Inverse folding.
C-alpha cells in the first residue's frame, strides 16, 4: 500500500477537527464509530473548548496536538476549513477528508471558496477528499472514519467489495442493504465534491487493495473520466470488475444530479460509451449493484461483439423462471432450448426433459440428483452461453437440499441462481458457495444482461496509420476554425472515406464537367446550415439549370449571410443509395472523443436511434454499432430489400473515428451527413460533411 | 356469498380424492395444510386402500363417503379424473378443483382429454377449477385447500389482498414474499388450465368478498378476456383495484393477423390495451405487484388523458430520492419543484428549502416537525399530483420517529414512501399506517408510474350513431368477404372519414374528369397487395398517360393474378399531407375489437411505433393515442414544421374505431393506409384502405 492509501484507509493517528463531546451530535460520530468498530490507533479530537472528548484527551488546535498526524477529518464550518488545511500543510498531514459542506454544491460563491481550498491544499502538499464528503472506511483496518449514520450499526461486516459513491447518504443505504443479507464491504468512500481526490483515483487505490475483489461505483456524474478509465483498465488487468450504477438516465435525473452535486452532467449515452470502452459493467437496478458483483468476479468478460446471448434455464417453478426470462428477452437475450444431445444425455440418466424452451422439472426438480444432472448437462453443452437455475418453494423450506446441486455444480460458464420465494437462508448458502444469487427477477435479469453486455476494455488498435498521417497533412494545410465542405471532405477522404465526385465553380457561368443530374451547394466555412440559407439545389438536370441554380444560391446566401466568406458553388454528382447514414464525431468535455452512427432523416432523430462509442473504434466495433441502429435494418437486408454494403460502412465508421488519432486531437466536431450506403459490394459515398477544430 | 363462492372458498365438507397417508407426499398436503391452519370442518380423504389417513377416517370412493360434499379436490392420475368428475355430478358436488395434470398443457392428446373432462362436468353440473391447478385458498375461512408447498409455513397471515394466478408455483412465491414482510392474502387461486372457471369469474368472486380490498393477477395469457373485463368493471365500481403482472412482454414474434398493422401488433400490446380499457392497473415488477396495492386501494383512479404527471419529493437522502426520480423520468413523469408559495409558507415556519427540484432536508429532515411541515406543504399545494417521501438512515435506527411524519400526514393526493436503507421495521410501520411503502427504487417507480397510467374503465360513448347506421347500410349492400378499395372507402366515408376524390374506369380509354396529376390503382377485392402486382401508378400527369397507365395496370394484374375479379381502375386525385398515418382495426381473438394508430413508412414499422386501444375510442382517447406515436411529432409541430390537423386526425381515429359499434361486429380487419394529415384546419384524407369481414 502506498503512503497515501495508507493515510486514507489505514491511518494510525487521526485528527478529528471539530469533534463534539455530545455523543448525539453528527460531529461525534467518527470517534464513536472508530472505537465501536475496533480502531486501536490514536484519535486526536480537536476542539478549542474541551480538554477531553468521549473519554479521550482533546486538543485546542491541530498545531497543539501531538504529531505526527496521518489523516485529518474536518467537520468545522466552511469558512474555517481553508485555514485548517493550511495548518495541515504546515504539519505535513498528508491527507484531509472534508466533511464540511458549503462549497461548490452551494453555487458560485461556494465554488470560489472551494477553489481557494484546493489552492491551499496544493500549496501545503495536502491531498483532499471532499468537501461535502461523508467519510472514508476500511473495514479490514477497523477504520470507519465517517459521519454516515449507517455506521451506528453494532457490527461492521468485513467483505470483498469496495465502493466509491458520489452520494454520501447512499453509502449508508448500500451498507445496510448488504449487511442485511450478511455481506459487507472492504473499503467505502463518499467522495463529496471531488475537489482533489476523485472517483478514479480512489477506485485505483481499491485495485491495489488485497481485500477488495470488485469495485462498485454509485455515480451521479463523471468528473475525472480519464483517471477513472485508467483505474478501470488496471482493475481489469488485476481481475477485479468495476460495476457502476449511474443516475441521470432520464433528463430529470440529470437535472437532479446537476443541482445535487454542483457538477456538470453530460449525456447519459456518452457515459455508457465510456463505461463500455473501459470495461466498466453498468447495472440498472440498485439491488443489481449489490448482487451482480459475485457474477462478475467469478466470470470475467470473455465476450466479443457478435458472440451469442443464449441462456438455458432449469427450474422447479415455470412461472418463477418466466419472470426472469421475459425480462431477458427485452434485452435481446434468447432462451436456448436443450439440444437433442442434451435431451439424449439426460434420457440415458432416466431424466426426461422434452424440448420445451426451458426445463421445468416441477416436483421432480426437488430431487437434488435430478436437478444436479440437468444442471451439469446444460453447463457442459455448447448450445448456451450461461445457465440460469431457478428454485421454488423448496428453497424456502429445505434450503440446504435446494441449493446443494447449484453450489455443487462445476460451472464452465456463468451459472446464476434466482430464488422465487422469500428464502434468505438459501440466498445466503448460495452466496457462501460462490454462486451469484438474486432476490428479484428484475435484479437477476439486470445482472445477466449486464454480464452479456460486458466486454474487456477496448484496445486502441485498428485504424490505418497512413490515413491518419494523410488526414493530419490535409488539416495542417487548412485555415483555422471551421472548414468548408470541400476541405472537410478532403480530410475524410484522406482517412479513406470516398466523397461524391465534385467540382467548385467560382463563377455561376463556369462550365462543369460532371454528368447530369447534379446538385449545387454553397461553399463557405461560415454557412453551416446551407439548406436553411437557400444554399442547396438538388436534381439539376442540365447546364442551363445549373447556371441558374448557382446564381440563385449565391444571391440567396449573400442575402442570408452578408458577412460570410463565399468560396464558390460546389457541384456534385447526384448520388443515391439504399440508406442515408449520419456519422458524427465529437470531443466530449467529459469523456473525450466519441463517434456516433445514426440513420438519416427526421424520424431517426425523433427516435433517438443511434450508436455511440468512444473513438477510435475498430471495424468490428463499427459493425456492432451498425447492428445497434434500428433504422439500419434497411441496409442489413430488411424484408426482401437488397442488403447494403455493411462492410464498407463499417470500414468508413472506423476510418472516420480515426479523427481521434490525429496528434493532439485537434477536431472539436465533425459530421458526414449523409453518408450513402449502396448495395453490397458497391461501397459508400460521403455526400456532405463538415469539420470544426477546437 | 353465493353458493358457488361458498363451495369454493368456504367449504365445510371437502373430499380429498387421491389423498395419501404418507405426510411427505404432495397428495397429503391439502389435508395437512387445512388442519395446520385451523380448518374445523369435515375432510373426507378418498383412497381405496386406506380406512384412515393422517388420523381421520378415509373412504374408498366418493360415493361411499358420507355426503353431502361441498368441494372435491382431485389428485388422482389424469385418466381417472373424468370418472371422478362424473361421480361428483351424480353426488351433486357443486365444484371440483383438479390438481391432476396431463391435460391441455400436454399437447393435442391432453387437450382432447380436457374437452371430455369439461363435457363430463357440464353434464353433471359440476364447476371446475383447473386441471393442473394448485389450489383454492381462503385465509379468513381457514381454508388453504392446496398442494402448494408454500403453505407448509407455520402461520398463514390473513390479509386484504386476493390473488388469481396462472402460475401455481408463483402463488407460493408471492405468499412467502408477502408473509416475509408481515402481510398476507384474503383469497388465492391457482387457476391451472382454466377449462371452466377462469381468471375473470374467480376475480369476480373476489370482488364480492368483503375481506378482499384489492385483486392481484399473475398472468401468462388472457383466456377469458370478456369475463375478466366485466369483473374489472365490477371491481372498479366496488372501489377494489385490480392489479396485473403479466408475462409475455418480450414475446414480439407473434403476429396476430396478416395485415400490415396486424403484423406490427404483438399480443402483449393488445393485453395492455385491454387492461387500460377496463381499468386494470399493470405493474412491471414482481415486487410492485405486492407493494402497489396499498397505493391503489387508497387512491382510486381519478385521472384523465392529459392530466399532469408531476411528483414532488421530500427526502433526507438526495441520492436515495434520485434513484426513484431518475426512473420516473424515464416514464415521462416530471419533478415539480416547490412553488414560491410553498417556499414562502415554509419560510414562515422557519424552514428554508430553496428552489431545487427536490427538497433534500439532509440532517434537518431527521427532525420530525420539519419533515412533517414540508410534507404538509407539498400535499396541500396544487403544483404536484403526488408526493414521494424518501427516508435515509433514520429509518434504520429510529423507525418510529422516521415514519411518524409520513404516517401522520393527511394525504389529499397520493403519498408514497421509499426507504433507502434496509429498514424492515420502518416499512412495517408505514404499511400499518396505511402508507404505500417500497423497498426498491424500481418497485417504487413502477408503482407510481402504474398509478399515473391508471384510469377508470373507459366508457363506450363518444361516436356518431348516424355514421354507424350509414356504415352498416353500406356494408349490408356489399358482397361477402373482403371488399375492394372503393367499397372499403365507402364504409369509412360513411363513418365520417373523407376519401380522396376518385372515379372508376371500367375501360382504359374512358375519360376522367379529375384534375391532373392523378394516381391509378387496380380495383379488385382479390388483389390485396396492389403495388406488388403492378397495380398502382403514381403521379400521372395527363389524359394520355392515364390511358397508358390504366392499360398497363390491367395487363400486369391479369398476369400476376389470372383468377382475380377485376372491377376496373380506380383513379384518384394525387393527395399530399404533412404526414402519413396508418389506421388499423382488428377483431382480436382474445380481447375483441382494437384500433391501432401508427405512422406510415418502413421506419415506423421498424420502430414498432404505434398506439393501440380497445375499440371504440372517444376523440379524447384518440388524441391521447396520437400523443403516444413518436413519429407523429411530425404533426404535433416538430422543430418549426407547420402543425398538422391533429383535431381532424383524432376525429378520424374515433370515427374509424366505431367499426366496433356495427351490430354484431362484422369486421375482421380494416385498414386505412395511408391517411394523409394536412396542415391544421385542412383536415385529413384517406388515400387507400381495405376491409375484411369475419
Amino acid at each position: 500500500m502506498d503512503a497515501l492509501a495508507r493515510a486514507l484507509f489505514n491511518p494510525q493517528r487521526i485528527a478529528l477537527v471539530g469533534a463534539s463531546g455530545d455523543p448525539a451530535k453528527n460531529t461525534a460520530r467518527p470517534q464513536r464509530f472508530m472505537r465501536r468498530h475496533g480502531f486501536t490507533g490514536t484519535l486526536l479530537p480537536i476542539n478549542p473548548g474541551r480538554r477531553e472528548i468521549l473519554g479521550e484527551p482533546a486538543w485546542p488546535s491541530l498545531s497543539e496536538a501531538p504529531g505526527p498526524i496521518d489523516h485529518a477529518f474536518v467537520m468545522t464550518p466552511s469558512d474555517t476549513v481553508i485555514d485548517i488545511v493550511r495548518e495541515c500543510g504546515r504539519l505535513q498531514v498528508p491527507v484531509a477528508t472534508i466533511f464540511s459542506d458549503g462549497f461548490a454544491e452551494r453555487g458560485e460563491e461556494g465554488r470560489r471558496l472551494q477553489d481557494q481550498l484546493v489552492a491551499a491544499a496544493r500549496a501545503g502538499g495536502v491531498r483532499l477528499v471532499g468537501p461535502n464528503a461523508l467519510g472514508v472506511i476500511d473495514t479490514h483496518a477497523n477504520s470507519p472514519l465517517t459521519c454516515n449514520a449507517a455506521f451506528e450499526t453494532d457490527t461492521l461486516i468485513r467483505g470483498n467489495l469496495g465502493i466509491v459513491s458520489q452520494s454520501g447518504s447512499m453509502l449508508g443505504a448500500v451498507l445496510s442493504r448488504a449487511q442485511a443479507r450478511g455481506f459487507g464491504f472492504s473499503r467505502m468512500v463518499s467522495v463529496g465534491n471531488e475537489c482533489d481526490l476523485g472517483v478514479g483515483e480512489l477506485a485505483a487505490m481499491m485495485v491495489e487493495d488485497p481485500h477488495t475483489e470488485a469495485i462498485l461505483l454509485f455515480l451521479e456524474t463523471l468528473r475525472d473520466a480519464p483517471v477513472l478509465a485508467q483505474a478501470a483498465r488496471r482493475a481489469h488487468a488485476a481481475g477485479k470488475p468495476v460495476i457502476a450504477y449511474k443516475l441521470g438516465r432520464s433528463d430529470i435525473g440529470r437535472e437532479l444530479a446537476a443541482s445535487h452535486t454542483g457538477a456538470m452532467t453530460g449525456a447519459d449515452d456518452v457515459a455508457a460509451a465510456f463505461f463500455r470502452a473501459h470495461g466498466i459493467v453498468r447495472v440498472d437496478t440498485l439491488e443489481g449493484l449489490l448482487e451482480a458483483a459475485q457474477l462478475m468476479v467469478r466470470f470475467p468478460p470473455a465476450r466479443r461483439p457478435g458472440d451469442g446471448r443464449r441462456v438455458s434455464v432449469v427450474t422447479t417453478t415455470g412461472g418463477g423462471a418466466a419472470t426472469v426470462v421475459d425480462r431477458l428477452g427485452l434485452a435481446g437475450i434468447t432462451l436456448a432450448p436443450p439440444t437433442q444431445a442434451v435431451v439424449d444425455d439426460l434420457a440415458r440418466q432416466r431424466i426426461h426433459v422434452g424440448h420445451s424452451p426451458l426445463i421445468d422439472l416441477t416436483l421432480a426438480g426437488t430431487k437434488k440428483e435430478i436437478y444436479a444432472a440437468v444442471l451439469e448437462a446444460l453447463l457442459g453443452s455448447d448450445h448456451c452461453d450461461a445457465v440460469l437455475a431457478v428454485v421454488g418453494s423448496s428453497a424456502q423450506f429445505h434450503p440446504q437440499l435446494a441449493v446443494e446441486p447449484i453450489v455443487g455444480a462445476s460451472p464452465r460458464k456463468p451459472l446464476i441462481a434466482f430464488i422465487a420465494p422469500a428464502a434468505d437462508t438459501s440466498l445466503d448458502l448460495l452466496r457462501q458457495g460462490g454462486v451469484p444469487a438474486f432476490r428479484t427477477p428484475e435484479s437477476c435479469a439486470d445482472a445477466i444482461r449486464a454480464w452479456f453486455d460486458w466486454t474487456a476494455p477496448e484496445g486502441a488498435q485498428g485504424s490505418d496509420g497512413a490515413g491518419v498521417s494523410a488526414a493530419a497533412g490535409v488539416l495542417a494545410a487548412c485555415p483555422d476554425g471551421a472548414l468548408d465542405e470541400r476541405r472537410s471532405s478532403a480530410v475524410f477522404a484522406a482517412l479513406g472515406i470516398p466523397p461524391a465526385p465534385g467540382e467548385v465553380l467560382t463563377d455561376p457561368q463556369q462550365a462543369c464537367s460532371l454528368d447530369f443530374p447534379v446538385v449545387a451547394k454553397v461553399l463557405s466555412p461560415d454557412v453551416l446550415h446551407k439548406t436553411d440559407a437557400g444554399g442547396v439545389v438538388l436534381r439539376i438536370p442540365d447546364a442551363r439549370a445549373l447556371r441558374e441554380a448557382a446564381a440563385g444560391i449565391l444571391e440567396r446566401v449573400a442575402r442570408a449571410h452578408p458577412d460570410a466568406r463565399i468560396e464558390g458553388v460546389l457541384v456534385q454528382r447526384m448520388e443515391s443509395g439504399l440508406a442515408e447514414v449520419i456519422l458524427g464525431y465529437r470531443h466530449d468535455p467529459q469523456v473525450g472523443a466519441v463517434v456516433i452512427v445514426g440513420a438519416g432523416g427526421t424520424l431517426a432523430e425523433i427516435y433517438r436511434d443511434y450508436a455511440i462509442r468512444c473513438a477510435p473504434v475498430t471495424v468490428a466495433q463499427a459493425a456492432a454499432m451498425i447492428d445497434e441502429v434500428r433504422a439500419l435494418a434497411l441496409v442489413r437486408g430488411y424484408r426482401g430489400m437488397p442488403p447494403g454494403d455493411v462492410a464498407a460502412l463499417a470500414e468508413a465508421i472506423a476510418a472516420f473515428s480515426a479523427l481521434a488519432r490525429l496528434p493532439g486531437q485537434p477536431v472539436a466536431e465533425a459530421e458526414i451527413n449523409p453518408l450513402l450506403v449502396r448495395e453490397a459490394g458497391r461501397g459508400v459515398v460521403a455526400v456532405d460533411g463538415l469539420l470544426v477544430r477546437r
Notes: Chain B touches chain A through 76 residues (CB under 8 Å).
